[in-house]
Specification:
By secondary structure, the protein is α/β, with parallel strands linked by helices. It is built from 9 helices and 12 strands. A 7-stranded parallel beta sheet has the order 8-7-6-9-10-11-12, with helices on both faces. Strands 2-1-3-4-5 form a 5-stranded parallel beta sheet, covered by helices on one side. The two termini are about 25 Å apart. The model has no long low-confidence stretch (mean pLDDT about 95). NADPH dihydro-nicotinamide-adenine-dinucleotide phosphate binds next to helix 3, helix 5 and strand 7.
Length: about 300
């Protein structure tokens, strides 16, 4: 049994020992030293080169090194019929919720303003609401959205979520589809994007949707850079319609030197670290799926390529 490991951002040194310890019979081949491509059974990848997966003629299963699979589905030569699974790891889910809570509290408690005041030596008390008086909307009612929603609700925030299908989970308020989106936006003083990037969600954070938020609202995008129309964000910030944005993901990563987001006073930039893949907890989950495949059992977290997530 052979597995190809290819990540454009992660080092194999973090993965190989974990995989070898848990499944010694699995031969791990690190791109580009892959040997005979026909011998590869499994591919564990993050942003594989276009055509790489198609070159593996006996590939049985594609495993994403992340929760998102847009980096795999973007390959125009993606082999059809090879199942794809994504990574759902409670460790990452908790990390994402920590990030979302940190940023929601930062915006809720007007931390950007107090930073500026400190730099200028200004002692000024701003009006402050409690969490129960602050509406937070989460785009995405999935693994990440639900955990963050539950925890924000636990802090007292007035939370609602949005998904494709109508859902209810643990008393989280939910809106769905095209009809539900304007309702969620209209009530979200802080909007958090935790959607997968698909043909339908590409550019969803744009001039028209951002204009539906209450005046002075703030945005957190921890999903994908492709969700945001960057020029539209700059325009709504300039107009004062939006008060701030926290961005963890970008159309071009790393965010290019000189990009206007770097030094924008109302934008917080983090380098795609909201929920990094964690080999000690992720490797057992990944290998569980390989064992399931070998045993002919249902896979965990299968992806529907037609749906895009
Ligand atoms: P899930 O698949 O569990 O959830 C996706 C949610 O998005 C579902 O609720 C789904 O609706 C909803 N959705 C999908 N398409 C649409 C649409 N067209 N309209 C409305 N709702 C839609 O994904 P996760 O929560 O696990 O992850 C979400 C994303 O977070 C990942 O795809 C990835 O891009 C990003 N991410 C970012 C990280 C970072 O470090 N910055 C780390 C990990 C993930 P429904 O419930 O109806 O299916
Ligand atoms: C992911 C990510 O999709 O880290 O897991 O962005």
């Amino acid at each position: 049994m052979a597995l190809l490991f290819r990540s454009s951002v992660d080092s194999e040194a973090r993965w190989k020992p974990q995989l070898a310890r848990l499944m010694p019979e699995l031969e791990v081949r690190i791109w580009p030293e892959i040997g005979d491509p026909a011998e590869i059974d499994y591919a564990l990848v993050w942003r594989p080169e276009a055509g790489l997966l198609a070159s593996l003629s006996n590939l049985k299963l594609i495993l994403s090194l992340g929760a998102g699979v847009d980096h795999i589905l973007a390959d125009p030569q993606l082999p059809c019929g090879v199942p794809i699974v994504r990574l759902v790891d409670p460790y990452m889910t908790e990390a994402m919720s920590e990030y979302v809570i940190l940023q929601v509290l930062r915006l809720h408690r007007q931390d950007l303003d107090y930073r500026v005041h400190q730099e200028k030596g200004i002692w000024l008390e701003l009006d402050q609401k409690n969490a129960a008086e602050r509406t937070v909307g989460i785009l995405g009612f999935g693994e990440l959205g639900q955990d963050a929603g539950r925890k924000l609700k636990g802090l007292g925030f007035d939370v609602a979520l949005w998904g494709r299908r109508q859902r209810t989970a643990e008393a989280l308020r939910g809106y769905a589809g095209g009809a539900g989106l304007p309702v969620l936006l209209d009530r979200s003083e802080i909007l958090v994007c935790l959607l997968p990037l698909t043909a339908e969600t590409e550019g969803i954070l744009n001039a028209s949707t951002l204009a539906m938020l209450p005046k002075g609202a703030a945005l957190i995008n921890a999903a994908r850079g492709g969700h945001l129309v960057e020029e539209d964000l700059l325009a709504v910030l300039a107009s004062g319609r939006l008060s701030a944005a926290v961005l963890d993901v970008f159309r071009d990563e790393p965010l290019p030197v000189g990009h206007p987001f770097w030094h924008h006073p109302r934008i917080v930039v983090t380098p795609h670290i909201a929920a990094a893949t964690h080999p000690p907890t992720a490797a057992p989950i990944i290998l569980d799926n390989i064992r399931r495949f070998e045993a002919g059992q249902p896979l965990l977290n299968p992806v529907d390529p037609a749906q895009g997530y």
